[in-house]
Structure formats: structure tokens, C-alpha cells
From TrEMBL:
It is a single-pass type I membrane protein. Its main location: membrane. Keywords: Disulfide bond, Glycoprotein, Immunity, Inflammatory response, Innate immunity, Leucine-rich repeat, Membrane, Receptor, Repeat, Signal, Transmembrane, Transmembrane helix. Disulfide bonds join C27-C33, C348-C377, C427-C449. GO terms for molecular function: transmembrane signaling receptor activity; triacyl lipopeptide binding. InterPro entries: Leu-rich_rpt, Leu-rich_rpt_typical-subtyp, LRR_dom_sf, TIR_dom, Toll-like_receptor, Toll_tir_struct_dom_sf. It comes from Erpornis zantholeuca. This is TLR21 protein. It comes from the Eukaryota. GO terms for cellular component: plasma membrane; receptor complex. Residues 583-726 form the TIR domain. The lineage of its organism: Eukaryota, Metazoa, Chordata, Craniata, Vertebrata. It is found in: Membrane. The chain crosses the membrane at residues 533-554. One of its GO terms (biological process) is inflammatory response.
Length: 728
């Protein structure tokens, strides 16, 4: 019968492995199991503890059963997105204590159960978006997820957020909510999360926007709102809240605003004194810039330092007002990007008030040379250091250079992807210019129009056939995608450290092209001259040092002491002893595996079948599967009235049952010597115990211990004494 039972077990295991291989060929004997898009209707059988990543996305699975993942205890990532999952047994994920990523997005879950996530202590990333639940329940489904870092939730039917829905979450790196149909938000719901680095919410209900902002002023660093029609908010966004606030960046994507709403928003956002960056992407403005500039100016200066506007949609943009009266709001700006938004000019009067601006990006707009004189007039942009005018409608390089020469502090200029076509012999540039990008500008040659003091020059993707300029300060030169047949000479650019000449017509190199400073005139350190030798010597020395440290650590048991210190620190964070109501066992038994036959078949039978019976805690039987060994040991000792050591030669030779006894020794004897019962299964000298267990050696010399006798009559006395010790 035993042989038949073994055969049936082996046959069952083989059949499950064959089923797994048949259902998912890419899952055989691999830590990564890719079963996506296989047409599966259920989780395949035969999943083992070897698997760390399981991808079951894009199948037809509709139910997750308790037993489906029971053996996959080492899973780190479980991908179940884009199935038809409508139900999950409450304990389906309980064995997955090591799981870090769970993706249940785009399924058919009509509700979320807190029981699903109750044992996912290591979970960091949870994706629940794209299901059919309307709310998160009456309480928090996430209360056990203490390590959660990113959370994605919501769907087109998601309509309500309640207070308490996020209890248990203290910190999130990213929170993404699809609230496109969110109609109810209980004030204070998001306040329970103390810190959120980046929050993204899809929100169409403009009334809820203000309530959410008030709740997250002290927690969110970057708020991103999509698809909102910005309201004309009358009430303060701050109300009774006091600083310091945490929110620093606010992004609107695909939002809709009017002249009235944007005027009111500028006033209200000034109350958030921590706000430093505003961003608008793919937003539509209905209006002509008739903003309430007097109200805006009277509300005080703005604290925002960076504004980014990309792909702004403005009907009849050519009728847009010049924003006269906004001068007081731009004095503190340090960075401004307006890209792909049909900008064709900036009034000179306005440009002169950007007194603190360091970075200006106008790429992919409609700036032409006729309007550039107005945009960069005398006295405009006085502090500007970086200017990007790429992808505009500039035609004259000479006029462009003359306009930029009015910028006294300009060091970086990008005018690439403009169709200049020609290049004059002489140009007037800012004296401070160090970086110039002229790539893709259709210039046929390079002349002395290029400023002599440049350090970085990019003339890639033009029609250059040669490069012969003398640029003594140049360090980087980019000549990619030209028509060069020879390298530029080394003498005119003596300080060059980087040269890119990819995709040209170079066929050969001459010796003269590589002539430069002679080796004799170059001063190099021994490291530069003999780098391979120096690196080899360093590697040998590092190896010998590591070898020495390993030897010293082995001789003096350094690793043991480190582990003991860590165990002590862990123990100190817990209460000294569990309350009486939490005591579950009469004794926790610490023994060597070689003595398991006597412990499990003799001692356990005698004690657990006594009248009244004793309840013993054995690591084989009572430790929680999947739980960290340290936590199992700590919990078992604290929930036991006594700790019973079964000592033998095997016990000593096995490093005192390794980590289990390391902690037991340190914890028990640091607290109370009376909690330990010593049973000698065979004679053992106290001097045979390793010296680092000094307290246990002392106890063996001073305290009475029980010794297992050979005779049956004496054994009966032994059991009576042991039972008496356990009861004391």
C-alpha cells in the first residue's frame, strides 16, 4: 500500500508538470513563466516554488481558485491583466508573501475584497484599473499593504471615494486614479496618505477637483490632472489649511479652460505658496487672452518659477491679446517653455519684464525673422542663458544672430531645424555664447560667421563638404550626416576632445589629419601611462584584502555576531513578553534535526498525550509557511510559556541549530533564565559548547538540567520531572 501511495503521488506530480508544459511551453523549468496570450481558461496546474515571475495576461481566465497558486510561494510578479476575471477566492493570494507586483487591470471585478491582499506583505505595485467596481467598499481594501509604492485604480464606472478607503497606506510613490465618472468624493478621503510623490487623476467633474486639492496640499508633491474642464472656483483652495504645503508641481493634460477660469485659477494658485512649476499639455483655451489682469495683479506676486505649455490649442490664435497688465506676474519666472503652440511673437514690453528668466524654449512654433526683432528687443530677457528657437520659420542666419546679440548673458543657443539655406561671411553674436546648434539648417558651408569662442558646435545634417574653421576653444564638434570627404585639421581646433563624423563620405585618413601635440610635450600621470598595470594591481590588492577579511571573519565568528546583533535589535523592538491571553503553547522545542526521531516520536507523544495534554510548538509543524524565519522564531518563543532545549552532540555540532538557536539563546537568556528548560539527550561537557554562548555555558554550570536515562523505570521519573518543569 505504501508503494502504491508513493506511485500515485509521483504520478500526480508528473501529470501536473506535463499539464503545465502543455498549457504553457515557455514555463518549463524556468523562473520566468510566460503564459500570456495562450487562450487559457484557468490558471495552469503544476506551478512550483521555482517560479518568480508568472505572466498570465491576455487570456480568458474568469476565476482564481484557492489552490491555483498554492505552491508558487516564491512569486515576485503576477500578471493577470486583460482576462475575464470576475471572482477571486478570498485566500487565493495568501501563499504569496513575497509578491511585489500584482496586475489585475482590465478584468471584470465588480468589487474589491480586503481579504485578497491581507497576506501580501511584500507587495509594492498594485494595478486594479479597468475593472467594473463602482467604489472601493465601505473600508480600505489596502490596510495590510504597508510596503505599497504604486497604486493604479478606477475605471469608467468608478463613481465614489469614501473616507477610510485609503487607510493603512502611509506613502506612495505613484497614485493613478481613473475618475472620469467620479461623482462623489467624501472630504478627507485622501488625507490618510501622508506622502505621495506623483498623483495622476483623470477627472471630468470640476467640483470635485477643488475638494481633492484641499486634501492633498500637505501630501502630494506632483499633481497631474487630465480631461478636466476647469471650473470658475470662488472659494479658496487653501481655506483653513496652513503651510508649509508639499505640492510643488501641477500638470494639466487635455484640459479645457476659458479666459474667465484661467484668470481665477491664477489668483487661487498663488495661495499655494509651495507651488513652483505649472505645466499644460494638449490643453484648449476658449478665449482671446482677455484675462482679468487687474484682479490678478492685485492678488500679489506669483511663486511659480517654471511654466511649460506644450501643444496649446487656441482658436483664432492670431487674435490673441498681448497680455498687457501681466508684467508683475512674470518677474520671478526662471524657466519658460511654450512649444508646438503657434507662437509667432512676444511683445517687447512684456519681454522686458522677464527679468529673472534663465531658460526659454520656443521650439516648434511660427517665429519668423520679421517678428524676432520685436520678440528679442533691446532690454528684453536680461538674464537669459539658454534659448531654444529650433523648428521655427527663421530664414536669415545674419538677422537671427544680430537679434540674439542683444542677450548679454546667453551661453546656449539652439536654432536647429530652421531653413537658413545660406550663411554670411560675418555675424554678430552674444559675446558670452559657448554652445551653438546649427544642425539641419541647410547651410552649404561654414564661415567666420561661426563665433570664434565657441566650446560646443553642432552642424550635423547639413550639406558641408569640408570644415576648415579655426576655433581654438572648441571642445566638442558634431559633423554627423554631412558630405565630408576628409577630417577637419587638428591644428585649428587644438582643444577638441569629442568629434562625431558618422554618416559622411570619408574613405581614408592621412597621417597629417591626426597630427597634434607631440607625446613628449604631454604630461601624463603614471595612471594614464600604465592604466592596465595599475588597475591589475588594484584588483589583486582588493582580492587579497577580501580574502583576509573572510579568513578573519571565519576565525573569530564575525558573521555569527552580526546575525546575533541583528536578532537582538529585532527583539528589542518587540514587547518583552506576550500578554497571558496570547500564550498559545506550553513550550517551544529547539532541537537538532538528527534528534528529530526521539523528539517527535517519543517526547511529543508522551507530553501531548498526557492528561492534561501539553501543547508543544515544533518548527516543522507549527511555523507559518512563507513567513520569514526570524519572525517565526520570535513569534513562537513569545507565544510559548517555556522554551525546551534538547541538547546533544548533534546539537552542538550543528552550530546550535544555526539561526534558530542563535536567536533563542540571545532572546531568552537576555530576559529570564527561568523560561529555559535544558534536556540532555546524551552526556555532553559544558566546555564542548562554543565560547560565544557564554550565558548558556554559565547556566549549564549553575542550573539543574534533566538528563534522559537509559532504564525504563528512571525514564518514568524523567517524564514526571519534565512535566513538573513545564507546569512551573
Amino acid at each position: 500500500w505504501q508503494a502504491l501511495a508513493i506511485y500515485m503521488i509521483l504520478a500526480a506530480n508528473l501529470s501536473e508538470q506535463q499539464a503545465l508544459k502543455q498549457a504553457c511551453p515557455l514555463c518549463d523549468a524556468s523562473q520566468f513563466c510566460n503564459c500570456s496570450s495562450m487562450g487559457l481558461d484557468f490558471v495552469p496546474l503544476g506551478l512550483t516554488a521555482k517560479i518568480t515571475v508568472l505572466n498570465l495576461a491576455h487570456n480568458r481566465i474568469n476565476h482564481i481558485r484557492s489552490q491555483d497558486l498554492q505552491q508558487a510561494v516564491n512569486l515576485r510578479a503576477l500578471l493577470l491583466q486583460s482576462n475575464n476575471i470576475s471572482s477571486i477566492d478570498e485566500d487565493s493570494f495568501w501563499p504569496l508573501a513575497k509578491l511585489e507586483l500584482l496586475d489585475l487591470s482590465n478584468n471584470s471585478l465588480a468589487h474589491l475584497s480586503p481579504m485578497w491582499f491581507g497576506h501580501l506583505f511584500s507587495l509594492q505595485h498594485l494595478h486594479l484599473q479597468g475593472n467594473s467596481y463602482r467604489d472601493l467598499g465601505e473600508s480600505s481594501p489596502f490596510s495590510s499593504l504597508r510596503n505599497l509604492s504604486s497604486l493604479h485604480l478606477g475605471n469608467s464606472q468608478f463613481s465614489m471615494i469614501r473616507q477610510g478607503n485609503f487607510e493603512g497606506i502611509d506613502f506612495l510613490h505613484k497614485l493613478w486614479i481613473d475618475g472620469s465618472n467620479l461623482s462623489q468624493y467624501e472630504q478627507g478621503s485622501l488625507k490618510s496618505i501622508k506622502k505621495i510623490n506623483h498623483m495622476i487623476i483623470n477627472l471630468r467633474n470640476s467640483n470635485i477637483f477643488s475638494e481633492i486639492v484641499r486634501d492633498i496640499l500637505h501630501s502630494v508633491a506632483w499633481l497631474e490632472v487630465t480631461e478636466i474642464k476647469l471650473p470658475v472656483e470662488r472659494n479658496s483652495l487653501v481655506q483653513n489649511s496652513t503651510g508649509p504645503f508639499r505640492i510643488q508641481k501641477l500638470t494639466f493634460k487635455e484640459a479645457f479652460v476659458t479666459d474667465e477660469t484661467i484668470s481665477r485659477a491664477i489668483v487661487l494658485l498663488k495661495e499655494i505658496t509651495s507651488l513652483k512649476e505649472l505645466e499644460a499639455i494638449n490643453c484648449a483655451l476658449e478665449g482671446r487672452g482677455e484675462w482679468k489682469t487687474k484682479e490678478i495683479a492685485s492678488s500679489g506676486p506669483s511663486f511659480v518659477e517654471t511654466v511649460t505649455i506644450i501643444k496649446a490649442i487656441i482658436q483664432n490664435f492670431h487674435l490673441f491679446f498681448d497680455l498687457e497688465g501681466m508684467e508683475s506676474q512674470i518677474n520671478n519666472l526662471k524657466g519658460l517653455t511654450i512649444a508646438s503652440s503657434n507662437v509667432f511673437m512676444v511683445p517687447c514690453k512684456l519681454a522686458r519684464h522677464f527679468s529673472s528668466l534663465l531658460y526659454l524654449d520656443f521650439h516648434d512654433n511660427l517665429l519668423a525673422n520679421k517678428r524676432l526683432d520685436e520678440t528679442i528687443c533691446e532690454g528684453s530677457w536680461p538674464s537669459l542663458q539658454t534659448l531654444n528657437l529650433s523648428q521655427n520659420s527663421l530664414k536669415s542666419l545674419e538677422q537671427t544672430a544680430r537679434c540674439t546679440s542683444r542677450l548679454p548673458k546667453l551661453t546656449n543657443l539652439d536654432i536647429s531645424q530652421n531653413n537658413f539655406g545660406e550663411i554670411p561671411d560675418e555675424c554678430q553674436w552674444p559675446k558670452s555664447l559657448k554652445y551653438l546648434n546649427l544642425s539641419s539648417t541647410q547651410i552649404p558651408k561654414v564661415t567666420k560667421c561661426i563665433p570664434e569662442k565657441l566650446e560646443v558646435l553642432d552642424v550635423s545634417a547639413n550639406n558641408l563638404k569640408e570644415f576648415g574653421l579655426e576655433l581654438p576653444n572648441l571642445k566638442e564638434l558634431y559633423l554627423t550626416k554631412n558630405q565630408l570627404k576628409a577630417l577637419p585639421g587638428a591644428t585649428p581646433i587644438p582643444n577638441l576632445v569629442a568629434l562625431s563624423v558618422r554618416r559622411n563620405k570619408l574613405n581614408s585618413f592621412s597621417r597629417e589629419e591626426f597630427e597634434g601635440a607631440q607625446v613628449g610635450s604631454v604630461h601624463m600621470s603614471p595612471m594614464e601611462c600604465h592604466r592596465s598595470l595599475v588597475v591589475s594591481l588594484i584588483c589583486v590588492l582588493v582580492f587579497l584584502l577580501i580574502l583576509l577579511l573572510v579568513a578573519v571573519g571565519y576565525k573569530y565568528h564575525v558573521v555569527w555576531y552580526v546575525r546575533m546583533t541583528w536578532a537582538w535589535l529585532q527583539a528589542k523592538r518587540k514587547p518583552k513578553r506576550a500578554p497571558p491571553k496570547d500564550i498559545c503553547y506550553d513550550a517551544f522545542v529547539s532541537y537538532s534535526e538528527n534528534d528529530s526521531d526521539w523528539v517527535e516520536n517519543t517526547m511529543v507523544r508522551e507530553l501531548e498525550q498526557a492528561c492534561p495534554p501539553f501543547r508543544l510548538c515544533l518548527h516543522k509543524r507549527d511555523f507559518v509557511p512563507g513567513k520569514w524565519i526570524v519572525d517565526n522564531i520570535i513569534d513562537s518563543i513569545e507565544k510559548s510559556h517555556k522554551t525546551l532545549f534538547v541538547l546533544s552532540e548533534h546539537f552542538v555540532r550543528s552550530e546550535w541549530c544555526k539561526y534558530e538557536l542563535d536567536f533563542s539563546h540571545f532572546r531568552l537568556f537576555d530576559e529570564n533564565n527561568d523560561a529555559a528548560i535544558l534536556v540532555l539527550l546524551e552526556p555532553i561537557q559544558s566546555n564542548a559548547i562554543p565560547k560565544r554562548f557564554c550565558k548558556l555555558r554559565k547556566i549549564m554550570n549553575t542550573k539543574t538540567y534533566l538528563e534522559w536515562p537509559a532504564g525504563e523505570e528512571q525514564q518514568q521519573v524523567f517524564w514526571e520531572n519534565l512535566k513538573g518543569a513545564l507546569k512551573s
